[in-house]
Amino acid sequence: MNRKVTIIGAGNVGATIAYTLSLEDIVSDIVLIDINKDKAEGEVMDIVQGTSFREPISVIAGDYADAADSDIVIITSGIGRKPGQSRIELAQTNVNILKDIAPKIVSVAPNALYVIVSNPVDIMTYVFTKISGLPEHQIIGSGTILDTSRLRFDLADHLKIAQQNIHAYVFGEHGDSSFIPWSCADVSGCQLRDFEDLMIRRGVVNTPFDPEDTLRYVQKSGGEIIAKKGATFYAVSASVKKICSLLVSAYDSVATVSSMMHGEYGIEDVCISTLTILGPDGIKGKLPVDLTDEEIEKLQASANALKEVIKGLNI
Question: Is 55 exposed, middle or buried (0-12, 13-18, 19+ CB in 10 A)?
Answer without folding.
Answer: exposed
